C-alpha cells in the first residue's frame, strides 16, 4: 500500500513548515504558526496543497494544519498524511494569542484608529478601494460534487437531499447562509463598536428556503434561488429599542455579502488548456 509522507520541514520565521509527499514525489505543503501583531490579535496557519487540490486553505493551529493535509490527501490517489508534527511551543503560543485577543476585544477608539487611515486613502484614491476576492475549487472528488477551498480546509459540496443528494456532502445553500451570517455578524459587531453599544453576548441565525422545482426544471414559474432570507441577532445588551433598530439598519446597509445577493453572478465556462 502506498502512503504519503508527512515531515517537518523546519522553522521559517515564526512559522513551522510541514510537507506531504505522495508516491509520485509531488509535494503538498503546509505551515502552521503565528502571524502576530504587537497585541497578539492575529493568529493563523495556512495550508497550500497544490496540483490536485488547488487554492489556499486557512486554519487556526497545528492540529488544523494537519487536518488540512489529511483531507487534502483524500484527493490524492494512493496517499495519506502521516502525523509527525512536533511543535508544542508554537501551539502554546498560538493558544495564548487567541486567549489574549478574545480577552482584549476592541473599542470605538481603536476601531477608528484602525480604519481612519484606510478611509482617508480611499477618499484620496477611490481606485484603491476596489478589493479583489477569490474562491477556488475543483472536481477532485467523485459523484455530483465540487470541492472548494475553505478557511479550515477543503469543503466538498454536493446535491441537497431535496434534489437527489443523500446528505453526506455540504449544501452550498447552507454555505451561502453561513457566508451571509458571518458577514452580517462582523458588520454588526463593527457598527455596534463604532456606536459605542456594548454587546456582552450574541446569538446569530439565518433561515431561508428554496423551491426545489426551480433548480430541477420542474416548473418555469418556480423561482431558482433562496427565498425569504432572514438574519436574526439576539443580543445581550443594555441598548434601547431605537439603538437596536439603528444597528440593524446600518448592518443591512453595510453588509457586503448581504448586499451582493441583489446581483446575479456571471458564470463563464471555458475549455482547459492542454
Give the name of the CATH architecture of the largest domain. 2-Layer Sandwich
Number of strands: 10
The profile of the biggest β sheet is: 5 strands, antiparallel
Q: Tell me what portion of residues adopts beta-strand conformation.
A: 15-25%
**Helix count, DSSP H or I runs of 4 or more residues:** 7
| CATH domain fold name of the largest domain | GMP Synthetase, Chain A, domain 3
Q: Roughly how many Å is the radius of gyration?
A: 22 Å
Helix content: 25-40%
What strand line-up does the widest sheet have?
1-2-3-4-5
The tally of structural domains comes to 2
Low-confidence stretches: 1-23, 27-62, 76-91
Summarize it:
This protein has 274 residues and is α+β, with helices and mostly antiparallel strands.
Description:
With 274 residues, this protein is of the alpha+beta class. The chain folds into two domains: 5-104; 108-260, GMP Synthetase, Chain A, domain 3. Helices cover 34% and strands 25% of the residues. It contains seven helices and ten strands. It has helices at 62-73, 88-104, 108-124, 172-195, 212-215, 241-254, 256-260, and strands at residues 5-12, 15-21, 27-33, 44-48, 57-59, 137-138, 145-150, 153-158, 199-210, 226-237. The strands form three sheets. A five-stranded antiparallel sheet has the order 1-2-3-4-5. A three-stranded antiparallel sheet has the order 6-7-8. A two-stranded antiparallel sheet has the order 9-10. Strand 2 and strand 3 (27-33) form a beta hairpin. Helix 3 packs across helix 4 and helix 4 (172-195) packs across helix 6 (241-254). The longest helix has 24 residues, at 172-195. The radius of gyration is 22 Å and the shape is globular. It starts with a strand and ends in a 14-residue tail after the last helix. Residues 1-23, 27-62 and 76-91 have low confidence and may be disordered.
Amino acid at each position: 500500500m502506498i502512503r504519503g509522507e508527512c515531515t517537518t520541514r523546519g522553522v521559517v520565521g515564526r512559522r513551522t513548515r510541514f510537507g506531504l509527499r505522495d508516491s509520485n514525489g509531488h509535494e503538498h505543503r503546509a505551515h502552521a504558526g503565528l502571524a502576530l501583531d504587537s497585541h497578539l490579535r492575529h493568529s493563523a496557519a495556512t495550508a497550500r496543497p497544490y496540483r490536485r487540490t488547488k487554492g489556499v486553505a486557512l486554519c487556526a493551529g497545528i492540529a488544523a494544519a494537519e487536518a488540512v493535509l489529511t483531507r487534502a490527501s483524500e484527493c490524492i490517489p494512493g496517499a495519506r498524511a502521516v502525523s509527525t508534527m512536533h511543535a508544542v511551543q508554537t501551539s502554546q503560543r498560538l493558544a495564548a494569542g487567541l486567549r489574549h485577543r478574545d480577552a482584549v476585544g476592541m473599542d470605538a477608539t481603536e476601531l477608528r484608529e484602525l480604519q481612519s487611515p484606510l478611509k482617508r486613502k480611499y477618499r484620496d484614491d477611490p481606485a484603491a478601494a476596489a478589493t479583489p476576492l477569490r474562491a477556488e475549487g475543483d472536481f477532485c472528488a467523485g459523484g455530483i460534487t465540487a470541492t472548494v477551498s475553505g478557511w479550515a480546509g477543503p469543503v466538498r459540496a454536493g446535491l441537497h437531499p431535496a434534489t437527489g443528494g443523500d446528505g453526506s456532502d455540504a449544501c452550498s445553500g447552507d454555505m451561502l447562509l453561513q457566508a451571509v451570517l458571518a458577514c452580517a455578524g462582523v458588520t454588526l459587531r463593527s457598527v455596534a463598536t463604532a456606536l459605542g453599544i456594548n454587546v456582552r453576548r450574541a446569538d446569530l441565525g439565518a433561515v431561508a428556503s428554496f423551491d426545489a422545482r426551480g433548480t430541477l426544471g420542474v416548473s418555469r414559474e418556480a423561482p431558482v434561488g433562496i427565498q425569504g432570507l432572514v438574519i436574526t441577532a439576539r443580543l445581550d445588551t443594555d441598548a434601547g429599542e431605537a439603538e437596536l433598530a439603528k444597528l440593524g439598519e446600518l448592518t443591512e446597509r453595510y453588509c457586503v455579502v448581504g448586499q451582493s445577493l441583489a446581483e446575479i453572478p456571471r458564470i463563464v465556462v471555458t475549455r482547459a488548456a492542454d
